[in-house]
Design goal:
The chain has one helix spanning 2-14; strands at residues 38-39, 49-54, 61-69, 74-79, 84-90, 92-97, 107-110, 114-117, 123-126, 131-139, 144-145. The chain has 156 residues and is mainly beta.
Length: 156
């Protein structure tokens, strides 16, 4: 129940980011200059920016969002309740699998790369350069850290 409450609180701020279109709209077009960045949800480590391109990650249904992270950014081992379908738009994500953030086991995925992970798959990521990724999947989206002490919301 506590995790569900934390996810809901995190998404309240996230859903405040203006999206270009809801899933009910006929079509959506977004040129790079149209993307409006705002703070990423507090469920992610500080420093990332987010832009919802389509839909609402906090509700059932299809959505697309972009995350922009600075060099040196890292997301500790975690899982998601839904499929995670990711395209690397720019930069490089270093993606590792498992419940321990063993950087030597991570794979560097440069711009143009794609990965899809089923729900509940433990993974981590770190970034050596500014990177933009796009997550396109069905909501509601959330994140559960393998080690609850690494959840950014625990320190707030």
């Amino acid at each position: 129940m506590k995790i569900a409450s934390m996810l809901a609180v995190g998404w309240i701020g996230f859903c405040g980011i203006t999206s270009f279109a809801s899933a009910e709209d006929a079509h959506t077009i977004a040129a790079p200059d149209d993307v409006k960045w705002g703070p990423a949800p507090k469920v992610l480590p500080a420093g990332a920016e987010a832009a919802v391109l389509f839909g609402d990650p906090g509700k059932e249904g299809l959505f697309a969002l972009r995350l922009k992270v600075p060099s040196g950014y890292a997301v500790p081992p975690h899982t998601h309740p839904v499929d995670e379908v990711v395209t690397v738009v720019s930069g490089t994500i270093n993606l590792g699998m498992g419940e321990t953030a063993d950087r030597s086991a991570a794979k560097a995925l440069p711009a143009g790369s794609f990965f899809a992970l089923p729900p509940g798959t433990a993974h981590f990521a770190y970034f050596d350069e500014e990177t933009v990724i796009q997550i396109t999947t069905n909501g509601p989206w959330g994140i559960k850290y393998v080690n609850p002490a690494e959840d950014p919301q625990q320190s707030q």
